[in-house]
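Escalated from tier 1: NAP holo job.
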Amino acid sequence: MKQSGILQLTLLGATGSIGRSTLDVISRHSDRYKVFALTANTNVDAMEKLCEQWQPEFAVMNDESSATQLGSRLRRKNIRTEVLSGVSGLLQVVEDDAVDCVVAAIVGAAGLVPTLASAKAGKRVLLANKEALVMSGKLFMDAVRDNNALLMPVDSEHNAVFQCMPDSLTAHHTSVKMTNSEAKSGIKRILLTASGGPFRTWSAEQLRDVTPEQAVNHPNWDMGRKISVDSATLMNKGLELIEAYWLFDMDIANIDVVIHPQSVIHSMVSYEDGSVLAQLGNPDMRTPVAHALAWPERIESGVEPLNIFDVAKLDFEQPDLDRFPCLRLCYEAISMGGTASVVLNAANEVAVDAFLESKIGFTDIARLIEQTLNAATITQDVSSLELILEADVTARTITNKCISAMH
Ligand SMILES: NC(=O)c1ccc[n+]([C@@H]2O[C@H](COP(=O)([O-])OP(=O)(O)OC[C@H]3O[C@@H](n4cnc5c(N)ncnc54)[C@H](OP(=O)(O)O)[C@@H]3O)[C@@H](O)[C@H]2O)c1
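Tier 2 regenerated the structure:
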């Protein structure tokens, strides 16, 4: 924290679900946090309101014409926020020396460049944008370590794992300590919990007829559309598996996915001596956001305390990789290594968009990802951002061709 005691924050993806949760938490702590910059893609109406409320130094719209619109609306209202656009605008507001903390909450691959830049700029990075880490893996973790950034997981499962890790491991920069195998001794397994999504009990036949409206209606969490579909296919859990692999430097064989429909336990860590530590709470993203903002301190988040008597029962099940092949494909992508995770992520993003636009069915999502993984050339060299972005673009072209061939 700065001398003034106020942490300056850039919020990437301010108009989204994680963006809203973050602003709700910081609205309770104006003595600790100041909004330096807010960013979005095209949602000018929401950004106008946020700029009026938060009066940030900068607002960035990724889309240029949205930036022009926002700029003229703010000028009419005499709001002094400077409006920037595109990737250059996003980079400017994460790299600025005045910024202490970047909340990476853009959805999908679009978040990779600014999220990686915030690690390179040595910021406190609150990572919600799991796709960025899935795509860039080692490159991202090296950037965190080499530039003394502090990487705090916001995904509720990874934040829970972080909370269940011994202090000796998390006392400094997460990634640096996680790669210290000596410090890690004692930890046997990570148990990543998953709600199982809205179709946990549905048969393979029923899954074929799932509509976008049904898929975005998650039983426990209120999230953006893309992650809601990912939760329904279990792709979200697969992406989280890859995220945990990089964040905690853990062999994939030692990470279990546990279906836990109540979403009360957000994940667990199992130790050598037989202890299993779990983090529990109501399913509300303001808890991990508040934890990641304030760690090693604790601050109020606005989340109702968990009433353990209301919960009463906790269930656990094995995931079904036949009905939910996206999870299986994530295991396969990890074992392929190199650009496979980039290809998997790109194919998923294209397929989920097509599903949300009712161009393909729910079960086509996994089929398209598999086809793309089979058709793409997987290379092991992922040592630069350029190589990663190239693999992403190529995979998108393949998936789009597969979709065209279906019609
Ligand atoms: N929601 C959750 O509970 C949750 C939990 C754990 C992890 N996460 C992760 O957090 C990230 C955000 O999820 P979300 O649910 O908050 O998504 P969301 O509600 O869809 O919000 C996405 C945000 O990203 C912006 N955006 C979209 N495309 C962009 C682009 N091309 N360039 C720049 N900005 C862009 C959107 O701006 P516009 O509004 O202008 O489109 C919006 O501000 C995802 O990676 C997700 O996996 C979310």
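The two ends are 55 Å apart (CA to CA).
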